[in-house]
Amino acid sequence: xxxxxxxxxxxxxxxxxxxxxxxxxxxxxxxxxxxxxxxxxxxxxxxxxxxxxxxxxxxxxxxxxxxxxxxxxxxxxxxxxxxxxxxxxxxxxxxxxxxxxxxxxxxxxxxxxxxxxxxxxxxxxxxxxxxxxxxxxxxxxxxxxxxxxxxxxxxxxxxxxxxxxxxxxxxxxxxxxxxxxxxxxxxxxxxxxxxxxxxxxxxxxxxxxxxxxxxxxxxxxxxxxxxxxxxxxxxxxxxxxxxxxxxxxxxxxxxxxxxxxxxxxxxxxxxxxxxxxxxxxxxxxxxxxxxxxxxxxxxxxxxxxxxxxxxxxxxxxxxxxxxxxxxxxxxxxxxxxxxxxxxxxxxxxxxxxxxxxxxxxxxxxxxxxxxxxxxxxxxxxxxxxxxxxxxxxxxxxxxxxxxxxxxxxxxxxxxxxxxxxxxxxxxxxxxxxxxxxxxxxxx
Length: 443
Known about the structure:
mainly alpha; two-stranded antiparallel ribbon
């Protein structure tokens, strides 16, 4: 089966294969060097700084900054070149049609493109075209929506998605990480600032600015605003998040097949990296920007931050100039590992990535089998032999199994960010599915 995240998966194994060399490794310079130009003001030209009053929602667009920061702008626009063949998750994981039955994700679930296509992706998915959604689905898709909500217009979250999506023109761009000052890295999303709380000082802002969108959230309150199911790093674990949802009796949808109250985990990259005990790389002080951006040079020798966000393995300059500070000839080591992935039957990369892939697929299949057995019992009338409490327990097991599977699969790194947590989540999902099958009398 063709993998949707092959390159990211390979980076996971590079971490495993080279982990010993990282013990003494810490970022060689401030992480802000790789994500902001606050100490490289010379990279800005003498072009006139744009006035936010001339832009919709007061958000200066990437095009508006193009003459002031031409190098950063050019690399930002280059992200569009990263969009290759995208996979349909409903085809990659057929079990999802069963797992998400009754929810919009069962209608369409395609691998997203990059930041340049954030508005297009959400506007064209069957989830918004075939089922009416609220405006809050635009959260994180454009800084214009962020600015609108932050201005006090929370009611926009309740507007009909298709009535307002055309009001926004700017995809994820400069304002999303800098607001209207490219010399600083900030966190514009007010809900995220509240959720990380006092722990904001414990994690570099270069990680938080990515984490404000790459996290698990839900919509709450009268205006259904984006909200995180935690406050502080210690509460950013799968166990604590599920306990929060259970305590608040929250569900994203009811399973169309069994009636179980379900949760659809979004994309908990930040929680996986920094939540609870945190990941190995997170503890060393690395940020998203260190691995997904990095410094580069223009033709005239000007150094600036590379705004073409991509897998570290797609950025040979990063490997050569940053990673090699701590690893001798890392480029050759990565090539060797990559070659093993392509041809070797027992390569290190192949072993780890296939282990994660096997867990994802076998757990999904087992879990969907549990749902099918549950539904069959209900359809045959044999579910009536269960007491109300036992039926509730079967629904709970379904909820738990899917939550942990979602947490691993939808984290989008295939173990690269925190392989220990990824495997633990998948093991929990599988054991819970087994428990449900046992209760249904299936070996």
